[in-house]
Amino acid sequence: MNLTKFADELPIPAILSPLQKNRNYTYYEVKMTEFKQSLHSELNDTTVWGYENGYPGPTIEVEQGEKVFIKWINDLPDKHLLPVDYTVHGAHRDVPEVRTVVHVHGACVEWESDGYPEAWFTKGYLQVGRYFRKPVYQYDNGNRPSTLWYHDHTLGITRLNIYAGLAGFYFIRNQQERLLNLPCEKYDIPLMLQDKTFNPDGSLYYPRQPDKPVSEMETSIVPEFIGETILVNGKVWPYLKVEPRKYRFRLLNAANTRFFRITLDSDQPLYQIATDGGLMEHPIGVKDILLAPAERAECIFDFSNLYGKNIIMKNGAPAPYPGGEPVNENTSIIMQFRVMLPLTSIDTSVIPAYLQPYPKLKEQSASKIRFLTLNDMMDSFGREYMLLNNKSWDAPITETPTLGSTEIWYLINLTDDSHPIHLHLIDFQLLDRRNFDVEKFNQEKIIHYTGAVQPPELQEQGWKDTVSANPKQVTRIIMKFHSYTGLYVWHCHILEHEDYEMMRPYIVIR
Ligand SMILES: [Cu+2]
């Protein structure tokens, strides 16, 4: 299927209006439904799932510290839109096929409102998972100003629910950020990057079997999903008309498996101002930005001197990353900016020299060090799957940090893939990465480093909630477990991995 590039304008999700709002209480309702939507003008309308009849869902915009309550409502059909594998954890025949639970990615929130994968619920809450506690979630929004996103997190079918369209943006703002005079309002635009493949009739394609099919199964989970087209905010290869001025773009990788290495074909620098967890200390000028699934980067693009030009945002990351297929003429293209709108007012926004302090967590402050492996496994059907610390989802909890304590986690990647590791509840800092001898580790269980310490990339020097643990490297992260006790998860954010055992519960204890 050959879809014309830059045929459709970039949609920008609307800001969701609360049903009630007063000084100490904001209340939203968000309903999940199935509907048809145009994802490209040359395609028939596609049946998707979305929040408030939109894919992506509407953007939820809150003030730092605002007390927000959201009732998440499942109004989806009983039958899944995409092929379900009933052999993976939590998706067996003993549970309803369509289940949902919503996680605000990056939020620091009480565990009962975090969207625990077994806190799922069906239409009308008629059936619920064993950790479901309530239909109305509470968010205290203590985070720094940042670009978060909400998405489905149901055990065993997250990959299908998000692929079907269940994702949206969630911004936290505050006054200090406003005073920085960054590009704002219509010049502050979120970009949700995904990849999908379509059937000729316009419907979503998701594989029923891996490349090497499992003959005894009708439907099997795949080890990764790599789509043939790139979508931004739910449109295939869109364009955006812009003024010759500065824009703030909030880039999010919401793909199942695909990494994006983002560049502009104008070769202009991207001024990155924020990571997953909000503003960096200083803007950094970079040529490209690598985003693993679930990672965010906010950038200022300056189109000031480019009136009349068309600029293409490109992708250069092989898929799966880093050892997979190089991009082709389609997957190398993300979207186009057309600098063709007249300047409506003088651009007084700035790229500030200083953004906000970034206090580094000190290694000496850590009271606990954990050594956690990322493992390759083979199941009884001959399928490859991955584990964290050699343990399946149902194994007893082993990560039990104490509230208020600081820990360092050594993510010891024994596999050939990069895995974006995400922790719920807290933001962490990346300390470093280092090559090690995998053979020796497998035999003797000792880390023998074979390379020098690699500091974080420039673009990673800020608060993170998701980090790439690269193959045959030890990636070290440091974090403080603050604010809440309770049951959370940490997992790989490649959705095909998290759905098949690359996820673990953890519990913050008092
Ligand atoms: Cu993974």
Automatic annotation (TrEMBL):
* A GO term for molecular function: copper ion binding
The cross-references to Pfam families, in alphabetical order and at most eight, read:
Cu-oxidase_2 (PF07731), Cu-oxidase_3 (PF07732)
The record's annotation in SUPFAM superfamilies points to: Cupredoxins (SSF49503)
- InterPro entries from the entry? Cu-oxidase-like_N, Cu-oxidase_C, Cu-oxidase_fam, Cupredoxin
Plastocyanin-like domain location is 45-176, 384-508
Q: Which domain of life is it from?
A: Bacteria
Family to which the UniProt record says this protein belongs? Belongs to the multicopper oxidase family.
Protein name, entry field: Multicopper oxidase
Species of the source: Perspicuibacillus lycopersici
